[in-house]
Structure prediction request, 162 residues.
Amino acid sequence: MVIRDERDEDANNIRHVIKAAFDCEDEADLVEALRLDGSSKISLVMEDEGQIIGHVMLSKMKEPTHSLGLGPISVEPGFQGKGIGSRLIRESINRSKKDGWKAIIVLGETDYYARFGFQANLIKDFSSPYAGPNLMALELQKDILKERDSNIISYAPAFDAL
Prediction:
């Protein structure tokens, strides 16, 4: 199994994985919209013997600046529970650090994302329609979320269609 950057020719296979993982088209449509509007900044696939079995996308947040939104992350149902999602998340975090991003925001299961260092308390004072314990952040630069121009969390425009 290998993790690599998404290629243009992967779009249909990625859509298939996302639809299978979520059992609907909403997240697949979101990924396509993020690609089209240029918000996608990191998009990785897990490949097994030439077959795409997992995908993760990170998109540029409107606020906080220089931050990424993690999601969606998808793993083909027959491959779930084998650490593929974890490997994709770890690699996406490493790439985000290397590329100089300041933080990553995620809306998801607290127990799952906490093991990667995501914490709700880092953004508890921020305003968001998704505010609550499942909205978490990972600082890629120490205390960077304390140095902010606003207290708003705002995802890429494509998320508004959900």
Observations:
- The radius of gyration is 15 Å.
